[in-house]
Amino acid sequence: MTRSVPPLGPSPDELAAAFARLVETALERAERGGEAPVIRQADPETLAALAAPPPAAGRALDEALARLDAALSSGMNTDHPRFFAFIPSPASPLSWLGELAASIHNQHLGAARQSEGATAIERGLIRWLAGEAGMPEGAGGLFVSGGSIANLTALTAARDQMLVEDERAQGTAYVTAETHASVAKALRIIGLTDRQIRVAPVDGERRMDVAGLARVIAEDRAAGLKPFVVAATAGTTNTGAIDPLPEIADLCEREGLWMHVDGAYGASALLSPAHRDLLEGVGRADSLSWDAHKWLFQTYGCGVALLRDASLLAPSFSLSADYLRDGDAVGADPNFWDLGPELTRSARAVRLWLTLQAMGRDGMAAAIAHGFALAEATERAVRETPDWLVASPARMAITAFRYVPEGLATDTADAINAAAARRLMEEGYAAVGATRLDGRVALRVCAINPRATETDMRETIRRLDGIARDLRGAV
């Protein structure tokens, strides 16, 4: 007796209707401007229903899609034109299309034999991005899920190249207080303890102080430790500061250290001819992390790890197993599963490839440059508003500021600044970040969305000012 197996997917008519619904949602979202709220909160009952176990008998696809749309429409809308908190992800509809195409074909990018065309796309983009970074022939890398895994990939290679196994307990890595938390997390994953993660001082612009770094390294060598890597930053999350990359490269060459650069969002400035010189020296790094899902306008899950010498990845990540022989590399280029932590890999690069094919290099450059102009407009608006202070000037599309009227106690001013940011977001007009600079609460704008305008920036400051004054009046 043959058992009846339920179909894996819907009928052709049901599938057509479902795709029509998704197309309608996509078009509505693409056309939506700033009139939608920057945040939507789901009610507890909806969240509880979403977290319930799946039904024993399947429900209608249309009903399931409606539930899914409600789930994905709640929370912070990070590609809203006025979402300025964190480092936003203003994804291009071109990226949606590229990701959808990759999902439909569902190719495995571990080995080139499994996905010849998508592998060619990824290899080509890796070569191009490495060249834009100023890396030499022989540089390479791979697409990963984002900056966290890019940092992990690069720092694993750094550890394995710079330390023998019995030196790992004495190995030391160098960061600053402004370094992204994912760097410290990666260092812990590869076996370093907190005492091995050394925090170098910063200068008045919150950049790594190279003279101070040299002193810490010398002290550690004198104590019998093994310095092996410096993690510089090209565009800090707090203020957009760029560490002095040429001077750090000089120091690393003198000291025999690996130079890693976390360029998760800031490396994208390399693609703007008007701004690429800000990252002078990045091509001398041994490794670079770069997120396409930030300032290259891709959907989440699209990052890059680049190495100055691509051959240094395989010693850390290559493997062999009988069941992998059918995917053995063809030609001189190794398979991607031998260059990073993943065996099973999706075609992450195709969405960026499609975006660049449609926008062109000039279009991408203009979109990146727009972010610089928006941050500068924000700084001007703050300077023109009484009782507001620029805490950090516009750099790399980020500026920070605070409300500091005369006579207001420091703690009270801090509370008002934080509360003003919360209320602005709750009202739905814009989301600005709240951070601490020099021990004081500061508000922070990261303006990388090409759909945002200078009018948006001025109105955001005007509304923050009104909220802050209302809060002060209630004190």
Main CATH class of the largest domain = Alpha Beta
What pattern of helices and strands is seen along the backbone? HEHHEHHEHEHEHEHEEHEHHEEHEEH
Indicate the overall shape.
Answer: globular
Q: Please state the structural category.
A: alpha/beta
Helix-residue proportion: 40-55%
Would you mind describing this structure in some detail?
This protein is of the alpha/beta class. It has 2 domains: 189 residues, Aspartate Aminotransferase, domain 1, CATH 3.90.1150.170; 239 residues, Type I PLP-dependent aspartate aminotransferase-like (Major domain) (Aspartate Aminotransferase, domain 2). Helix content is 42%, strand content 14%. The chain contains 14 helices and 13 strands. It has a 7-stranded mixed beta sheet with strand order 3-9-8-7-6-4-5, with helices on both faces. The protein has a 4-stranded antiparallel beta sheet with strand order 10-11-13-12. A two-stranded antiparallel sheet has the order 1-2. A hairpin with a 2-residue loop joins strand 12 and strand 13. Helix 12 packs across helix 14 and helix 13 crosses helix 14. The mean pLDDT is 96.
Spell out the blueprint of helices and strands.
Layout: H1 12-31, E1 39-40, H2 44-50, H3 61-72, E2 75-76, H4 93-105, H5 116-132, E3 140-144, H6 147-162, E4 171-176, H7 181-189, E5 197-200, H8 210-222, E6 226-233, H9 245-255, E7 258-262, E8 287-291, H10 292-295, E9 303-307, H11 314-317, H12 349-383, E10 388-395, E11 398-403, H13 410-427, E12 433-437, E13 440-446, H14 454-473
Parallel strand pairs: 4-5, 4-6, 6-7, 7-8
Antiparallel strand pairs: 1-2, 3-9, 8-9, 10-11, 11-13, 12-13
Helix pairs in contact: 4-12, 6-7, 12-14, 13-14
Modified residues (N6-(pyridoxal phosphate)lysine): 294
Protein name: Aminotransferase class V-fold PLP-dependent enzyme
GO molecular function: carboxy-lyase activity; pyridoxal phosphate binding; transaminase activity
